[in-house]
Amino acid sequence: MLVKHCVISALTRSTSHSPSSTVLRRQQFLVRTLCASRTHLPKLIKAMSSTSEADAESVLRTVTPTLDPKRHKGQAGKIAVIGGCREYTGAPYFAAISALRIGADLSHVFCTKDAAPVIKSYSPELIVHPVLEESYNISLHNLYVLLSGFSEEEKRKVQDKVIGEVDKWMERFDCLVIGPGLGRDPFLLECVSKIMLLAKKFNVPFVVDGDGLFLVTDSIDLVRSYPLAVLTPNVNEYKRLVQKVLNCEVDEGNAGDQLRSLAKQIGGVTILRKGKTDLISNGEIVKSVSVYGSPRRCGGQGDILSGGVFETFSPSESPAILGCIAASGLLRKAAALAFTKHKRSTLTSDIIECLGESLEDICPAS
Ligand SMILES: NC(=O)C1=CN([C@@H]2O[C@H](COP(=O)(O)OP(=O)(O)OC[C@H]3O[C@@H](n4cnc5c(N)ncnc54)[C@H](O)[C@@H]3O)[C@@H](O)[C@H]2O)[C@@H](O)CC1
Ligand SMILES: Nc1ncnc2c1ncn2[C@@H]1O[C@H](COP(=O)(O)OP(=O)(O)OP(=O)(O)O)[C@@H](O)[C@H]1O
Ligand SMILES: [Mg+2]
């Protein structure tokens, strides 16, 4: 109760103007998340904590918002992917479109200028912002920089411009997913670390995946103790996190406890470790999702998952761990369905096509 009171007061103080409904919802969400973590999570999770395998279908039913005719556009989720560069345009598209396919109302992508026309051409549904800059692009356009190297002053100017573009929108988002197809350009990653700070300032929840995890592994304080952060590492990303944070190797014989220690060590962020069985922990409890999925390991399935986590995580205002369980269960069910239809030729786009059918099966629209 005291924690709740303190958090509400702090949040009220930090908002000088009358808060918009998005801000208010986010504040309530943060309060719920903080209080939940202080009290070892609410009843639903307590009830699940005696078994390690989560009941993904009932969690999905719990977190999926009903289709209410009184609701207006945006109330089922306004989300943004920070990712997409010269090399990777598929990953941010997969994440953004998956969120729309499972119920979000608006899906934005903030990517580099080169990637934007390509991502726009995949779908008119996405709102694409060509704002991120890679260092090679800046050097090409600035002779001074070419001759003298990239000065601190130039760097700051470009970064301020990028952050300004994102800042205009930040308050409107219910959740971000940071990293699919971001690439590893140091200048771009520096900008993205500032975007993370901005998201934290506005209490916007975020999912970190792909190259966002490369950034975070190197600068773990970017997410440390932020209760609204979810990390979704694959096998390699997890290995790097364990090595960096726990200073040891991945211990498969003790996977659950190691994941719990890792999440605890990062201040109670939620981690979804992807693999044959998905393992999820917030530093207190560990849940697994091993619903049968697909034997196809085509690239992009993790991107669907990150899109799914941030959609199921945000509008339901449930603790992050439930969003992870719901997204994992849904992706796996869709992957299984796609595989029955397409067998060896199953691609990530086929799995996305099956998201609606899988969701309808578990949680009918009417
Ligand atoms: N179509 C696209 O645009 C895609 C872009 N992607 C993006 O590509 C970037 C790099 O992600 P990666 O996942 O490739 O980076 P990783 O560092 O995870 O993987 C690098 C290498 O590890 C190998 N690997 C994969 N699973 C393994 C396993 N179980 N054991 C041992 N080695 C394994 C892969 O063959 C790959 O060559 C990210 O930004 C990501 O979001 C991916 O999401 C895939 C789809
Ligand atoms: N060996 C496996 N068997 C069954 N399902 C798996 C296996 N490995 C991963 N998955 C499923 O695929 C999903 C994506 O995990 P994966 O490890 O492929 O992510 P990723 O490497 O980040 O993908 P991406 O190519 O999008 O970057 C996981 O949530 C999990 O449900
Ligand atoms: Mg990935």
Automatic annotation (TrEMBL):
Q: What PROSITE patterns does the entry give? A: YJEF_C_3
User: Where on the tree of life does the source sit, at the highest rank?
Assistant: Eukaryota
Locate the residues binding ATP: 274-278, 293-302
Q: Which Pfam families match?
A: Carb_kinase
Question: Which residues of the sequence carry a binding annotation for (6S)-NADPHX?
Answer: G181, N234, V235, N236, E237, Y238, K239, R240, D303
Tell me what reaction this enzyme catalyses.
(6S)-NADHX + ATP = ADP + phosphate + NADH + H(+); (6S)-NADPHX + ATP = ADP + phosphate + NADPH + H(+)
> GO molecular-function annotation terms?
ATP binding; ATP-dependent NAD(P)H-hydrate dehydratase activity
Q: Identify the EC number(s).
A: 4.2.1.93
Give cofactor(s), names only.
Mg(2+)
Q: Cite the InterPro entries for this sequence.
A: CARKD, Ribokinase-like
Residue ranges of the YjeF C-terminal domain? 56-362
Q: What are the recorded Gene Ontology BP terms? A: metabolite repair; nicotinamide nucleotide metabolic process
Q: What is the main EC category here?
A: lyase
Signal peptide range in chain numbering: none
User: Which portions of this protein are annotated as coiled-coil regions?
Assistant: none
Q: Which keywords does the record carry? A: ATP-binding, Lyase, NAD, NADP, Nucleotide-binding, Phosphoprotein
Kindly give the PANTHER family that the UniProt entry links to this protein.
ATP-DEPENDENT (S)-NAD(P)H-HYDRATE DEHYDRATASE, ATP-DEPENDENT (S)-NAD(P)H-HYDRATE DEHYDRATASE FAMILY MEMBER
- Name the family the entry cites: Belongs to the NnrD/CARKD family.
What does the UniProt function comment say about this protein?
Answer: Catalyzes the dehydration of the S-form of NAD(P)HX at the expense of ATP, which is converted to ADP. Together with NAD(P)HX epimerase, which catalyzes the epimerization of the S- and R-forms, the enzyme allows the repair of both epimers of NAD(P)HX, a damaged form of NAD(P)H that is a result of enzymatic or heat-dependent hydration.
This protein is called what?
ATP-dependent (S)-NAD(P)H-hydrate dehydratase
The organism encoding this protein is Brassica napus (Rape)
Name of the coding gene: BnaAnng23250D
